[in-house]
Design goal:
The protein is mainly alpha-helical. The relative contact order is 0.10. α1 runs antiparallel to α2. The chain is about 90% helix and about 0% strand.
């Protein structure tokens, strides 16, 4: 298996993982909004929202870091 094929499979796995992660974040945000509208506690909403924001930040920064690593390694 050549290096191009390896990068293709790594990119495919990354896209699947990111898609699943963003889907879970969207599902959590939608459920949290519905829960707040039905009279849920604001403190719990802030805690869950903060955790979702941290997960989103890790996904985005992790993706940027991996892409940066691929680009610098591939260009050398």
């Amino acid at each position: 298996m050549g290096p191009l094929q390896t990068y293709f499979y790594l990119a495919l796995i990354a896209v699947i993982i990111l898609g699943f992660g963003f889907f879970l974040i969207w599902l959590t945000a939608r459920s949290l909004r519905r829960w707040l509208r039905s009279g849920g506690s604001t403190l719990i909403a802030w805690l869950i929202g903060g955790a979702v924001a941290v997960v989103l930040l890790v996904l985005v920064l992790g993706t940027a870091g991996v892409l940066y690593g691929f680009l610098t390694y591939g260009s050398s």
